[in-house]
Protein backbone atom coordinates (compact mmCIF):
# COMPACT_ATOMS: atom_id res chain seq x y z
CA UNK A 1 0.00 0.00 0.00
CA UNK A 2 1.51 3.31 -1.14
CA UNK A 3 0.43 5.22 1.97
CA UNK A 4 2.78 3.11 4.09
CA UNK A 5 5.75 4.78 2.43
CA UNK A 6 4.84 7.99 4.25
CA UNK A 7 6.80 6.49 7.14
CA UNK A 8 9.91 7.52 5.24
CA UNK A 9 8.87 11.18 5.45
CA UNK A 10 9.03 13.77 8.23
CA UNK A 11 7.17 16.93 7.24
CA UNK A 12 7.02 20.49 8.54
CA UNK A 13 4.58 23.38 8.29
CA UNK A 14 6.10 26.85 8.25
CA UNK A 15 2.78 28.69 8.29
CA UNK A 16 -0.42 26.94 9.39
CA UNK A 17 -0.91 23.27 10.10
CA UNK A 18 -2.69 21.37 7.32
CA UNK A 19 -4.20 18.15 8.60
CA UNK A 20 -5.32 17.13 5.11
CA UNK A 21 -1.67 16.85 4.07
CA UNK A 22 -0.93 14.69 7.10
CA UNK A 23 -3.87 12.43 6.26
CA UNK A 24 -2.78 12.19 2.65
CA UNK A 25 0.84 11.22 3.26
CA UNK A 26 0.64 9.63 6.73
CA UNK A 27 4.21 10.70 7.60
CA UNK A 28 6.32 9.25 10.38
CA UNK A 29 6.51 12.68 11.96
CA UNK A 30 5.48 16.33 11.97
CA UNK A 31 7.71 19.24 12.97
CA UNK A 32 6.08 22.44 14.18
CA UNK A 33 7.69 25.85 13.63
CA UNK A 34 7.20 29.17 15.48
CA UNK A 35 4.54 30.48 13.08
CA UNK A 36 2.35 27.45 13.94
CA UNK A 37 2.43 28.28 17.62
CA UNK A 38 2.89 32.00 18.17
CA UNK A 39 1.34 31.60 21.61
CA UNK A 40 -0.05 28.87 23.81
CA UNK A 41 -3.62 29.47 22.55
CA UNK A 42 -2.67 28.45 19.01
CA UNK A 43 -0.48 25.60 20.23
CA UNK A 44 -3.43 24.12 22.11
CA UNK A 45 -5.54 24.18 18.94
CA UNK A 46 -2.76 22.54 16.92
CA UNK A 47 -2.33 19.77 19.44
CA UNK A 48 -6.07 19.12 19.47
CA UNK A 49 -5.99 18.77 15.69
CA UNK A 50 -3.01 16.43 15.77
CA UNK A 51 -4.40 14.22 18.51
CA UNK A 52 -7.78 14.09 16.78
CA UNK A 53 -5.87 12.40 13.96
CA UNK A 54 -4.40 10.06 16.57
CA UNK A 55 -7.99 9.29 17.64
CA UNK A 56 -8.60 8.10 14.09
CA UNK A 57 -5.66 5.72 14.03
CA UNK A 58 -2.81 7.88 12.73
CA UNK A 59 0.51 7.47 14.51
CA UNK A 60 3.24 10.03 14.14
CA UNK A 61 5.99 11.78 16.02
CA UNK A 62 5.51 15.46 16.92
CA UNK A 63 8.74 17.41 17.09
CA UNK A 64 10.22 20.89 17.17
CA UNK A 65 13.65 22.56 17.11
CA UNK A 66 13.39 23.66 20.73
CA UNK A 67 17.07 23.24 21.63
CA UNK A 68 17.23 25.81 24.40
CA UNK A 69 18.72 29.30 24.31
CA UNK A 70 19.41 30.45 20.79
CA UNK A 71 16.69 28.32 19.21
CA UNK A 72 13.49 28.05 21.24
CA UNK A 73 10.19 27.69 19.44
CA UNK A 74 7.52 26.48 21.86
CA UNK A 75 5.53 29.00 23.94
CA UNK A 76 4.93 28.60 27.66
CA UNK A 77 8.36 27.07 28.34
CA UNK A 78 10.73 29.20 30.39
CA UNK A 79 13.71 30.29 28.27
CA UNK A 80 17.05 28.63 28.84
CA UNK A 81 20.26 30.70 28.97
CA UNK A 82 21.44 28.41 26.18
CA UNK A 83 23.73 25.49 25.53
CA UNK A 84 26.95 27.48 25.82
CA UNK A 85 25.96 28.65 29.30
CA UNK A 86 24.85 25.16 30.30
CA UNK A 87 28.14 23.73 29.03
CA UNK A 88 30.03 26.23 31.19
CA UNK A 89 27.98 25.86 34.38
CA UNK A 90 26.45 22.37 34.11
CA UNK A 91 22.82 21.31 34.81
CA UNK A 92 22.25 19.78 31.35
CA UNK A 93 20.28 16.94 32.95
CA UNK A 94 18.10 19.44 34.82
CA UNK A 95 17.29 21.27 31.60
CA UNK A 96 16.65 18.05 29.68
CA UNK A 97 14.35 16.82 32.43
CA UNK A 98 12.50 20.15 32.59
CA UNK A 99 12.19 20.43 28.82
CA UNK A 100 11.11 16.81 28.51
CA UNK A 101 8.38 17.32 31.10
CA UNK A 102 7.10 20.48 29.41
CA UNK A 103 7.22 18.92 25.94
CA UNK A 104 5.28 15.91 27.17
CA UNK A 105 2.62 18.04 28.87
CA UNK A 106 2.16 20.07 25.68
CA UNK A 107 1.80 16.96 23.49
CA UNK A 108 5.24 16.60 21.92
CA UNK A 109 6.99 13.23 21.86
CA UNK A 110 10.24 14.20 20.13
CA UNK A 111 12.69 17.09 19.82
CA UNK A 112 15.41 17.81 17.25
CA UNK A 113 18.07 18.19 19.94
CA UNK A 114 20.72 18.02 21.31
CA UNK A 115 23.17 19.83 19.07
CA UNK A 116 26.52 18.12 19.54
CA UNK A 117 28.45 20.33 17.12
CA UNK A 118 31.64 21.62 18.74
CA UNK A 119 32.35 25.34 18.83
CA UNK A 120 35.52 26.22 16.89
CA UNK A 121 37.20 29.64 16.43
CA UNK A 122 35.74 30.02 12.93
CA UNK A 123 32.41 28.29 13.51
CA UNK A 124 29.48 29.65 11.51
CA UNK A 125 26.98 31.82 13.36
CA UNK A 126 24.50 28.99 12.83
CA UNK A 127 26.48 26.97 15.37
CA UNK A 128 27.11 29.88 17.75
CA UNK A 129 25.42 29.48 21.11
CA UNK A 130 23.81 26.23 20.00
CA UNK A 131 27.08 24.45 20.84
CA UNK A 132 27.73 23.40 24.43
CA UNK A 133 31.43 24.15 24.31
CA UNK A 134 34.68 24.18 22.39
CA UNK A 135 35.74 21.34 24.69
CA UNK A 136 34.75 17.97 23.22
CA UNK A 137 34.42 16.31 26.62
CA UNK A 138 32.02 19.00 27.84
CA UNK A 139 29.91 18.70 24.67
CA UNK A 140 29.65 14.93 25.05
CA UNK A 141 28.92 15.02 28.79
CA UNK A 142 26.31 17.79 28.48
CA UNK A 143 24.53 16.11 25.57
CA UNK A 144 24.41 12.76 27.35
CA UNK A 145 22.92 14.33 30.48
CA UNK A 146 20.39 16.27 28.40
CA UNK A 147 19.33 13.06 26.63
CA UNK A 148 18.89 11.25 29.94
CA UNK A 149 16.65 14.09 31.13
CA UNK A 150 14.48 13.76 28.02
CA UNK A 151 14.31 9.98 28.41
CA UNK A 152 12.75 10.36 31.85
CA UNK A 153 9.66 11.73 30.08
CA UNK A 154 9.84 9.45 27.03
CA UNK A 155 10.84 12.19 24.61
CA UNK A 156 12.87 11.05 21.58
CA UNK A 157 16.16 12.91 21.29
CA UNK A 158 17.95 13.63 18.00
CA UNK A 159 21.72 13.99 17.79
CA UNK A 160 22.68 16.61 15.24
CA UNK A 161 24.38 17.38 12.87
CA UNK A 162 26.34 14.25 11.89
CA UNK A 163 29.32 14.09 11.46
CA UNK A 164 29.73 17.60 12.96
CA UNK A 165 28.92 21.14 11.82
CA UNK A 166 31.32 22.98 14.13
CA UNK A 167 34.22 23.42 11.71
CA UNK A 168 31.99 24.79 8.96
CA UNK A 169 32.47 28.49 8.32
CA UNK A 170 29.40 28.81 6.09
CA UNK A 171 25.72 28.30 6.93
CA UNK A 172 24.27 25.26 5.13
CA UNK A 173 20.85 26.94 5.01
CA UNK A 174 22.26 29.22 2.31
CA UNK A 175 25.31 27.57 0.73
CA UNK A 176 27.33 24.35 0.73
CA UNK A 177 30.01 24.39 3.45
CA UNK A 178 33.24 22.59 2.67
CA UNK A 179 35.31 21.46 5.66
CA UNK A 180 38.78 20.57 4.44
CA UNK A 181 40.43 19.74 7.77
CA UNK A 182 38.05 16.94 8.85
CA UNK A 183 39.40 13.38 9.06
CA UNK A 184 37.67 10.08 9.76
CA UNK A 185 38.74 9.98 13.42
CA UNK A 186 38.14 13.69 13.97
CA UNK A 187 37.26 14.47 17.57
CA UNK A 188 34.02 16.11 16.37
CA UNK A 189 32.70 12.89 14.84
CA UNK A 190 33.76 10.75 17.81
CA UNK A 191 31.09 12.45 19.92
CA UNK A 192 28.47 10.85 17.67
CA UNK A 193 30.21 7.49 18.06
CA UNK A 194 30.19 7.72 21.84
CA UNK A 195 26.56 8.87 22.07
CA UNK A 196 25.07 6.73 19.28
CA UNK A 197 23.86 4.09 21.74
CA UNK A 198 21.89 6.71 23.67
CA UNK A 199 19.52 7.77 20.87
CA UNK A 200 17.18 6.41 18.21
CA UNK A 201 17.61 9.39 15.85
CA UNK A 202 20.64 11.07 14.32
CA UNK A 203 20.31 14.00 11.90
CA UNK A 204 22.77 14.54 9.07
CA UNK A 205 24.75 17.63 8.08
CA UNK A 206 24.56 19.09 4.56
CA UNK A 207 28.34 19.54 4.45
CA UNK A 208 31.16 18.31 2.23
CA UNK A 209 34.19 16.74 3.90
CA UNK A 210 36.59 16.09 0.98
CA UNK A 211 39.22 14.22 3.00
CA UNK A 212 36.63 11.51 3.71
CA UNK A 213 34.25 11.58 0.73
CA UNK A 214 33.55 13.72 -2.31
CA UNK A 215 29.79 13.56 -1.66
CA UNK A 216 27.85 15.75 0.79
CA UNK A 217 27.50 13.89 4.13
CA UNK A 218 23.71 13.55 3.90
CA UNK A 219 24.13 11.54 0.69
CA UNK A 220 27.36 9.74 1.59
CA UNK A 221 27.41 5.96 1.97
CA UNK A 222 30.84 6.32 3.49
CA UNK A 223 29.44 8.40 6.34
CA UNK A 224 25.97 6.94 6.84
CA UNK A 225 26.64 3.23 6.31
CA UNK A 226 30.36 2.52 6.49
CA UNK A 227 31.09 4.76 9.47
CA UNK A 228 27.84 5.32 11.38
CA UNK A 229 26.06 1.99 10.91
CA UNK A 230 28.94 -0.45 10.41
CA UNK A 231 31.92 1.03 12.25
CA UNK A 232 29.96 2.65 15.09
CA UNK A 233 27.28 -0.09 15.20
CA UNK A 234 24.48 2.49 15.28
CA UNK A 235 21.10 0.71 15.19
CA UNK A 236 18.82 3.72 15.24
CA UNK A 237 17.37 5.84 12.44
CA UNK A 238 19.12 8.41 10.27
CA UNK A 239 17.06 11.47 9.41
CA UNK A 240 18.19 14.11 6.94
CA UNK A 241 18.37 17.77 7.77
CA UNK A 242 15.71 19.71 5.83
CA UNK A 243 16.04 18.79 2.16
CA UNK A 244 15.21 22.26 0.88
CA UNK A 245 18.25 23.85 2.52
CA UNK A 246 20.33 25.42 -0.23
CA UNK A 247 23.48 23.41 0.54
CA UNK A 248 21.63 20.34 -0.70
CA UNK A 249 18.82 21.62 -2.90
CA UNK A 250 21.00 23.91 -5.03
CA UNK A 251 23.41 21.11 -5.83
CA UNK A 252 21.19 18.07 -6.42
CA UNK A 253 17.83 17.39 -8.02
CA UNK A 254 15.01 15.94 -5.87
CA UNK A 255 15.45 12.61 -7.63
CA UNK A 256 19.20 12.55 -6.93
CA UNK A 257 18.65 13.51 -3.28
CA UNK A 258 16.05 10.81 -2.67
CA UNK A 259 17.93 8.03 -4.44
CA UNK A 260 21.34 8.81 -2.95
CA UNK A 261 20.00 9.33 0.57
CA UNK A 262 18.28 5.96 0.81
CA UNK A 263 21.02 4.05 -1.01
CA UNK A 264 23.63 5.61 1.28
CA UNK A 265 21.86 4.35 4.40
CA UNK A 266 19.45 7.18 5.25
CA UNK A 267 16.04 6.30 6.65
CA UNK A 268 13.79 9.39 6.89
CA UNK A 269 13.56 12.42 4.60
CA UNK A 270 12.85 15.70 6.38
CA UNK A 271 10.95 18.33 4.38
CA UNK A 272 10.82 21.46 6.50
CA UNK A 273 8.24 23.34 4.42
CA UNK A 274 6.03 20.73 2.80
CA UNK A 275 3.59 23.19 1.22
CA UNK A 276 6.36 24.87 -0.80
CA UNK A 277 8.05 21.62 -1.75
CA UNK A 278 5.43 19.16 -2.91
CA UNK A 279 7.77 18.38 -5.79
CA UNK A 280 9.96 16.40 -3.40
CA UNK A 281 7.07 14.25 -2.20
CA UNK A 282 5.68 13.85 -5.72
CA UNK A 283 9.10 12.80 -6.97
CA UNK A 284 9.42 10.32 -4.10
CA UNK A 285 6.11 8.59 -4.87
CA UNK A 286 6.79 8.70 -8.60
CA UNK A 287 10.10 6.91 -8.06
CA UNK A 288 8.33 4.22 -6.04
CA UNK A 289 5.69 3.71 -8.75
CA UNK A 290 8.30 3.61 -11.49
CA UNK A 291 10.47 1.20 -9.49
CA UNK A 292 13.38 3.63 -9.43
CA UNK A 293 13.78 2.76 -5.76
CA UNK A 294 14.20 -0.69 -4.25
CA UNK A 295 10.76 -1.14 -2.69
CA UNK A 296 11.72 -4.21 -0.65
CA UNK A 297 14.69 -2.29 0.75
CA UNK A 298 12.38 0.60 1.70
CA UNK A 299 9.91 -1.77 3.35
CA UNK A 300 12.69 -3.01 5.63
CA UNK A 301 13.32 0.58 6.66
CA UNK A 302 9.61 1.14 7.25
CA UNK A 303 9.39 -1.88 9.53
CA UNK A 304 12.28 -0.56 11.62
CA UNK A 305 10.84 2.97 11.69
CA UNK A 306 7.47 1.73 12.94
CA UNK A 307 9.04 -0.20 15.80
CA UNK A 308 11.14 2.74 16.95
CA UNK A 309 8.52 5.46 16.66
CA UNK A 310 5.99 3.40 18.63
CA UNK A 311 8.37 3.60 21.61
CA UNK A 312 7.49 7.29 21.91
CA UNK A 313 3.97 7.71 20.54
CA UNK A 314 1.00 7.75 22.91
CA UNK A 315 -2.66 8.24 21.90
CA UNK A 316 -3.17 11.29 24.09
CA UNK A 317 -1.28 13.70 26.34
CA UNK A 318 -1.72 15.06 29.85
CA UNK A 319 -3.08 18.55 29.13
CA UNK A 320 -5.67 17.33 26.62
CA UNK A 321 -8.26 17.01 29.41
CA UNK A 322 -8.68 20.78 29.09
CA UNK A 323 -9.82 20.41 25.51
CA UNK A 324 -12.11 17.59 26.58
CA UNK A 325 -13.74 19.86 29.17
CA UNK A 326 -14.24 22.57 26.54
CA UNK A 327 -15.92 20.14 24.18
CA UNK A 328 -18.20 18.49 26.74
CA UNK A 329 -19.33 21.77 28.31
CA UNK A 330 -21.02 22.99 25.12
CA UNK A 331 -24.82 23.21 25.01
CA UNK A 332 -26.56 23.89 21.73
CA UNK A 333 -29.73 24.05 19.73
CA UNK A 334 -28.50 23.52 16.19
CA UNK A 335 -30.67 22.01 13.47
CA UNK A 336 -27.99 21.24 10.90
CA UNK A 337 -24.37 21.98 9.99
CA UNK A 338 -23.45 25.20 8.23
CA UNK A 339 -21.31 25.08 5.12
CA UNK A 340 -20.00 28.57 4.39
CA UNK A 341 -21.85 30.98 6.68
CA UNK A 342 -21.01 34.61 7.26
CA UNK A 343 -19.57 35.36 10.69
CA UNK A 344 -20.31 38.39 12.80
CA UNK A 345 -17.69 38.75 15.53
CA UNK A 346 -17.26 41.24 18.37
CA UNK A 347 -14.41 43.58 19.11
CA UNK A 348 -13.25 42.01 22.35
CA UNK A 349 -12.99 44.18 25.42
CA UNK A 350 -12.23 43.18 28.99
CA UNK A 351 -15.01 44.05 31.43
CA UNK A 352 -12.74 44.05 34.47
CA UNK A 353 -9.25 43.24 35.68
CA UNK A 354 -10.48 39.68 36.17
CA UNK A 355 -11.67 39.35 32.56
CA UNK A 356 -9.45 37.91 29.81
CA UNK A 357 -11.85 38.05 26.85
CA UNK A 358 -9.67 40.42 24.86
CA UNK A 359 -6.74 38.03 25.00
CA UNK A 360 -8.93 34.96 24.56
CA UNK A 361 -10.40 36.28 21.30
CA UNK A 362 -7.15 37.62 19.84
CA UNK A 363 -7.00 34.83 17.26
CA UNK A 364 -10.76 34.49 16.66
CA UNK A 365 -10.63 35.78 13.09
CA UNK A 366 -7.63 33.59 12.24
CA UNK A 367 -9.30 30.51 13.69
CA UNK A 368 -12.51 31.09 11.75
CA UNK A 369 -10.55 31.62 8.53
CA UNK A 370 -8.66 28.39 9.15
CA UNK A 371 -11.79 26.33 9.78
CA UNK A 372 -14.08 28.11 7.27
CA UNK A 373 -11.69 29.46 4.60
CA UNK A 374 -14.48 30.45 2.19
CA UNK A 375 -16.57 32.34 4.72
CA UNK A 376 -16.72 36.11 5.18
CA UNK A 377 -16.09 37.71 8.55
CA UNK A 378 -17.74 40.96 9.63
CA UNK A 379 -17.52 43.10 12.74
CA UNK A 380 -20.28 45.70 12.13
CA UNK A 381 -22.59 44.45 9.39
CA UNK A 382 -26.10 43.50 10.59
CA UNK A 383 -27.85 42.42 7.37
CA UNK A 384 -27.00 39.15 5.68
CA UNK A 385 -28.42 37.29 2.71
CA UNK A 386 -28.35 33.73 4.00
CA UNK A 387 -26.76 32.25 7.14
CA UNK A 388 -24.83 34.15 9.80
CA UNK A 389 -23.05 32.84 12.87
CA UNK A 390 -23.24 35.66 15.42
CA UNK A 391 -20.67 35.64 18.25
CA UNK A 392 -22.22 37.57 21.15
CA UNK A 393 -20.34 39.00 24.12
CA UNK A 394 -22.77 41.20 26.08
CA UNK A 395 -25.41 42.69 23.78
CA UNK A 396 -27.60 41.17 21.10
CA UNK A 397 -28.12 43.39 18.11
CA UNK A 398 -30.88 42.82 15.61
CA UNK A 399 -29.74 40.60 12.75
CA UNK A 400 -31.51 40.15 9.45
CA UNK A 401 -30.75 36.88 7.73
CA UNK A 402 -32.49 33.70 6.61
CA UNK A 403 -30.74 31.81 9.38
CA UNK A 404 -29.02 33.11 12.50
CA UNK A 405 -26.95 30.93 14.84
CA UNK A 406 -26.02 32.71 18.07
CA UNK A 407 -22.80 31.81 19.88
CA UNK A 408 -23.06 33.23 23.39
CA UNK A 409 -19.54 33.69 24.71
CA UNK A 410 -20.10 35.51 27.98
CA UNK A 411 -23.81 35.81 28.66
CA UNK A 412 -26.76 33.72 27.53
CA UNK A 413 -29.81 35.50 26.15
CA UNK A 414 -33.07 33.58 25.87
CA UNK A 415 -33.86 33.02 22.24
CA UNK A 416 -35.97 30.81 20.04
CA UNK A 417 -33.20 30.90 17.45
CA UNK A 418 -30.50 28.31 17.05
CA UNK A 419 -27.66 28.84 19.49
CA UNK A 420 -24.43 27.43 20.86
CA UNK A 421 -23.39 28.04 24.46
CA UNK A 422 -19.75 27.09 25.21
CA UNK A 423 -19.64 28.62 28.72
CA UNK A 424 -16.26 30.06 27.76
CA UNK A 425 -14.55 32.58 25.49
CA UNK A 426 -11.31 30.59 25.33
CA UNK A 427 -9.98 29.75 21.88
CA UNK A 428 -10.10 26.00 22.49
CA UNK A 429 -13.82 26.28 23.32
CA UNK A 430 -14.46 28.30 20.17
CA UNK A 431 -12.53 25.71 18.17
CA UNK A 432 -15.02 23.05 19.31
CA UNK A 433 -17.90 25.42 18.53
CA UNK A 434 -16.61 25.68 14.96
CA UNK A 435 -16.34 21.89 14.70
CA UNK A 436 -19.93 21.65 15.86
CA UNK A 437 -20.96 24.14 13.18
CA UNK A 438 -19.28 21.90 10.61
CA UNK A 439 -21.27 18.91 11.85
CA UNK A 440 -18.90 17.17 14.24
CA UNK A 441 -20.79 15.91 17.27
CA UNK A 442 -24.23 16.93 16.03
CA UNK A 443 -26.97 14.53 17.11
Automatic annotation (TrEMBL):
Superkingdom of origin: Bacteria
EC top class named in words: hydrolase
EC numbers: 3.2.1.52
Single biological process term from Gene Ontology: peptidoglycan turnover
Span of domain Glycoside hydrolase family 3 N-terminal: 17-306
A Pfam family of this chain: NagA_C
UniProt key word NADP: no
Keywords: Glycosidase, Hydrolase
Catalysed reactions listed for this entry: Hydrolysis of terminal non-reducing N-acetyl-D-hexosamine residues in N-acetyl-beta-D-hexosaminides
PANTHER family hit by this protein: BETA-HEXOSAMINIDASE, BETA-HEXOSAMINIDASE-RELATED
Family membership noted in the UniProt record: Belongs to the glycosyl hydrolase 3 family.
The protein, known as: beta-N-acetylhexosaminidase
Species annotation: Thermosipho melanesiensis (strain DSM 12029 / CIP 104789 / BI429)
